[in-house]
């Protein structure tokens, strides 16, 4: 580990307490000037530092993989956590080096600079203000079953967020709090020829973003847990809860091949159920009403002017309310 990594780990372990500068120097065996330079470097890199006469501390809690590991009680998912201080994209790393990861591995980062969401939308994780993680899966399933994993993830994520504030699910992959998006899911599959080699599930959560941190163009439809609750969110307890829920639902599904436990959560938490919506795909806008989510994880819609029902399973579309985001 570098001196920088040692200091980051020390500040994380002591959060929210201050650490005197001389204690940092003794712990890292650094001279006072070197300690000051190291702290200045962290500040330039964007770490949320607060320095006072008592010492220095992080203003916000950051991801602490040791804390998560200590609290996890899972069967397979998350038994191996890979933490990166900063990275372009957790999903990109997982997909590019899929052979080096095992089933159930989870990649986490404090700072994601080039993440993406569904349909190629950009998504970044700011230091102390967002969570970015990816779950690596290497299941023995057919590709048509892989689409269910987004719904399983949505059910687990909603349950975890509910421990902080009430959430809803906007099918297929958005978490909603007070009619605004607070988190999203991106599921990507990797094939070798026609053989499924692995699946990577990316999760992004806006935890401690302020209103000013959200782009002006997105404030009408995006929010954070801090904005909605007015309380600083501990990312570690939220991540731990999410992994626990994911492991429980995934282990059950793997054993029984029964999707009903998590599909029932998705239906119960759906913000679209029995709502009038617009399905957008390219230049096409089709009004309809959501009537169900079937056991395959597909959204069942009755389009205006039709008596028959249709299922949505492709990802090349977006869903909006008739006059708003929802």
TrEMBL record:
GO terms for cellular component: cytoplasm. One of its GO terms (molecular function) is transferase activity. Residues 66-254 form the BPL/LPL catalytic domain. Keywords: Ligase. It comes from Alkalibacterium olivapovliticus. Pfam families: BPL_LplA_LipB (PF03099). The keyword Iron does not apply. The keyword Aminoacyl-tRNA synthetase does not apply. GO terms for biological process: protein lipoylation. This is BirA family biotin operon repressor/biotin-[acetyl-CoA-carboxylase] ligase. SUPFAM superfamilies: Class II aaRS and biotin synthetases.
